[in-house]
Amino acid sequence: MAVVKEIVPFDQDKIYEKHRDLVHLDKWVEHYRSYAMEGRCAAYIPALAMANPSQLGIAMAGPDGVVLKSGECEASFTLQSISKVIGFIAACLDFGTPYVLDRVDVEPTGDAFNSIIRLEVHKPGRPFNPMINAGALTVASLLGGRAPLTKIESFLTLIEKMVGKRPSINEEVFQSEWRTAHRNRALAYYLKETGFLECTVEEALEVYLKQCSIEVNTQDVAMIGLILAYDGFHPIRKEQIFPKEVAKLTKALMVTCGMYNASGKFAAFIGLPAKSGVSGGIMAAVPAHAGSKKSPFPDGCGIGIYSPAIDEYGNSVAGSMLLKHIAREWDLNIF
Amino acid sequence: MAVVKEIVPFDQDKIYEKHRDLVHLDKWVEHYRSYAMEGRCAAYIPALAMANPSQLGIAMAGPDGVVLKSGECEASFTLQSISKVIGFIAACLDFGTPYVLDRVDVEPTGDAFNSIIRLEVHKPGRPFNPMINAGALTVASLLGGRAPLTKIESFLTLIEKMVGKRPSINEEVFQSEWRTAHRNRALAYYLKETGFLECTVEEALEVYLKQCSIEVNTQDVAMIGLILAYDGFHPIRKEQIFPKEVAKLTKALMVTCGMYNASGKFAAFIGLPAKSGVSGGIMAAVPAHAGSKKSPFPDGCGIGIYSPAIDEYGNSVAGSMLLKHIAREWDLNIF
Amino acid sequence: MAVVKEIVPFDQDKIYEKHRDLVHLDKWVEHYRSYAMEGRCAAYIPALAMANPSQLGIAMAGPDGVVLKSGECEASFTLQSISKVIGFIAACLDFGTPYVLDRVDVEPTGDAFNSIIRLEVHKPGRPFNPMINAGALTVASLLGGRAPLTKIESFLTLIEKMVGKRPSINEEVFQSEWRTAHRNRALAYYLKETGFLECTVEEALEVYLKQCSIEVNTQDVAMIGLILAYDGFHPIRKEQIFPKEVAKLTKALMVTCGMYNASGKFAAFIGLPAKSGVSGGIMAAVPAHAGSKKSPFPDGCGIGIYSPAIDEYGNSVAGSMLLKHIAREWDLNIF
Amino acid sequence: MAVVKEIVPFDQDKIYEKHRDLVHLDKWVEHYRSYAMEGRCAAYIPALAMANPSQLGIAMAGPDGVVLKSGECEASFTLQSISKVIGFIAACLDFGTPYVLDRVDVEPTGDAFNSIIRLEVHKPGRPFNPMINAGALTVASLLGGRAPLTKIESFLTLIEKMVGKRPSINEEVFQSEWRTAHRNRALAYYLKETGFLECTVEEALEVYLKQCSIEVNTQDVAMIGLILAYDGFHPIRKEQIFPKEVAKLTKALMVTCGMYNASGKFAAFIGLPAKSGVSGGIMAAVPAHAGSKKSPFPDGCGIGIYSPAIDEYGNSVAGSMLLKHIAREWDLNIF
């Protein structure tokens, strides 16, 4: 199953060099796959509940175009909360960081991703950060263009620039989420009342749930992680996709708030900017300076992981364990 | 006022090399000093209220022993919450990280440093992290040895190893805090009830308030920051003071929870592990990989800042602005 | 302006008897009218903001059909939260008290009427009581018949039985509330998610906002208060409108939760079951045993008050003061 | 076991009259005793944990001096939270109601009796009401005289005036509470910081825990309830012990906040001013106007109940059920 695939012109030597690393990766994937049983597929979105919980796949993309893959790395899954990272970047591109930060703060909360309490306690304050649902809805409402279709378009365009192909929206997942989005509607109406929604509730919700329903695989996610690692620069296409300042800020947000209310534990025990989604995806960015010679990617890399069984916080169980193991074994850590 | 001082044997060249940087630093210090007026000295501890709010000093300590200083860098101040970092490290040294983490979590909260709410809402959970008062009191109660004197001794010994001299406790500040520590006593009794205090309330409080009252200057703080930057290794004395794992974990905690409930903004806009105290001190660590050639310390450094006028969160106003300016100008950022 | 009006066949003597009391009432109304300036008309519902804040009117209805009136007693106003009492009674009539109480608790909260926090903290618990918006929305969703029109019909029918005429819905107020009901929609979607809404959000909201928009005057409200005072029995028409148990329970709810988060102060300083609305209406019930010989209604009465300028809690300023004065002077108190 | 005992000169006829009622009472006590198994004796105060959970006793004291008793009515128990009622009255007697209400509000909370959250959320507000621990500690700190001994003396004197004998303090219970009062100390230190404690923490705590440790039996409690029912007037000794206004206010507080966070359910389903303690005691007041001809006390009465097994809220399980049954059967209800 494990493969090394190049995006740039083929170079046989690189594959041999990576062979040893692949052997490790395959072994680790097989080992941690068994821990998936300790989690459960997200039940509140019916379409997600049907995923095969024993899947575990990973892709690691280096700046030279080499991609290391193992396990169910080709499986399709929806971005879910990983899309919050992209939405935040898109909004900063559209309106500039100060405009966005006037409407959403950047403080971690310790609360669950769908918590509404702080909106009332700190009323009429901004949502605490763009990585919780309240903040992500505010960000979705900002996106350029008035109509949901235009907003989601700017979303798809940004992803296309990063992963090299236009992603599609999983209509089944979107419909499933749309019908059961009571809590998100509650959050959106609350934000509407306090003035932190710049379009209608239904429009914000359509954008947010469509961005959550964008279909990717681990390599797509790894590519986005790689560009974040390189401060917005696409190291293969040699193109600055978004400004360095936005990238630094986004990675800081991923560290402080990216892994739901287990973000502190991720920072402490893994030490990489990462963002998870309830579909079981994890995106991580290993900046060049945090790469190590022990690893197959001494100049940093992006990491995409998928394993749909999630824990009480909403993070992939086997995915988190695999990422922790890799970070420790290969000495990847920004701190 | 600005001086370059060496700790290791004198080397005239280094001073000349740094001259240009010093000119910058002096200019910045003078510029940001005026912003101190926007803050106020901590009023709830009478002895702190008497500080001169217009003071601003900085020391930056490099791995080669060079220390760059500017402003009121020699002023004495008490560690206050910066001591929480040292207490956490001391407890990990005494009992091992797993033992400590069984008693205190590592999640940011978004709440004020002296908040008690979460102890009840998440009862009977651990305090959320060791950088808020509740968690720091639990950590103080763990420290080796039964008697407060023994506990505080292990504290002083650790600092001595790092800064090269035994610090003293400011008795006046300690007495002032002791008499007005009603909120901390409330926290400590709450922790006692929920089983997260391993000594008496009065003992834990004595240790905690004494550690807060340890007197330092900016160079001392910069040295501790430097050792954190070097993962527990003292680059001048060539000695591992505490394990790399503890250092990584501590820096992660500083990023997610170190600057009170403005930690998210610090991570987003400064991007360095840092810890502040209500006396107006800030300690920051610039790991070797986060140093930049633009800066006088391409191999990383430790930073100690002092300016006693603090903002609504408890962070030094001028100190935070100076640190942000330095990080931006010299491109220091872990993300 | 002050009049004594009979509902039952005219009896000249009664009017004379009451003359002394009317003189008092007129004086008190004039006195407390000036305090209305300390409040403001509810601003969040545009149609309410246009009311004349200096109005103050009262009607007191006795079991013998005598009604004592003073001030702007004929002014029309919408029920707003007073309708929560009627909704609760209607639901108990439709489904029985146990069914209703399985879906809404009867505990006071100390929180604002539109608070959402407790729904999350005590999730997945019932709304705390039917006198806060969350509970009232749950109750509205229970009402008999599937369609909003049927639900609101059972509402209008119950009021008609009590006041002797079919009330109308103020369409302008309803439309105004419907367009600005973001917070109530947030509450309703939250309830939908936790399973405490037995119809769609839009249906529940239509019923709730229409019941809030029912137009009444002080005499109508006094009649409903009188029937509550008489444990569900209409003392003039000699008909049991709803069971005694429901009436007792409802009056208990009015005492513990009826006056928003000033209910405790109302119980303490006035001592009568009462319910207010943000339109400035107050309904109070004086049970026969709580009537006193000092008062014109020794056998109890119902009280309807209207004065649209409300305080920070949502209660009519002048109305509350007038009620307190009456209760004290005429020794009306259930405790 | 059941007896009828007079306090005033003996009158054989009265006993015969009550015989039928006693037969009922005995039957009900035996019936509800079995439900005590669903509760548990308070475990957090070691001395209370040793009580016999199957005990259930009741005394009902009428204005004519007749006392109806059944079950373990002679058992001694400590007042615990019932003392909060007496402390509030004593403080109002010492300083006047306005002074006391400036320092403690009268709003129900829906929170547990020992909750600390609201002190922070509504900081720097008064404790929400004198029936929760925070408010009771504030009240204890107000009591006349500086020293704890003087404060507790004014407490004992007030009880002596009501029950006709000087009660004693159970030193074993007091010592047991004193040693384990961590949560109460946390509350007291919090109040000290916010300025709502008018003596030292240790003094307030000594007074509060001693008032909790006052030993009574059901007849004592029934007598206090009777005097509350009679608005502060001792109907047997024909003496006004405290003003009517204080009595009305206290009964309102008992209804809205007296039964911990089940107060709403008590008001709704029982409908009598009542106050419970974690020792398993309940005091209820049936005002003259709420007495009924169905009951042995048509002119009202006081009720004292004891059954030490308590529920999750802190209320006696069997005691609450017995009180509810009595109120329903004998039609006692203030609403």
TrEMBL record, chains A, B, C, D:
- Kindly list the positions annotated as binding substrate: S81, N133, E177, N184, Y208, Y260, V278
Which catalytic reaction applies to this protein? L-glutamine + H2O = L-glutamate + NH4(+)
Q: What class of enzyme is it?
A: hydrolase
Molecular function as annotated in GO: glutaminase activity
Q: Does the keyword Hydrolase apply?
A: yes
Alphabetical UniProt keywords: Acetylation, Hydrolase
InterPro entries for the chain? Beta-lactam/transpept-like, Glutaminase
Q: What is its EC number?
A: 3.5.1.2
Q: Which SUPFAM superfamilies match?
A: beta-lactamase/transpeptidase-like
Report which residue ranges the record marks as coiled coil: none
Q: Which family does it belong to?
A: Belongs to the glutaminase family.
Q: How does it assemble?
A: Homotetramer.
Its protein name is Glutaminase
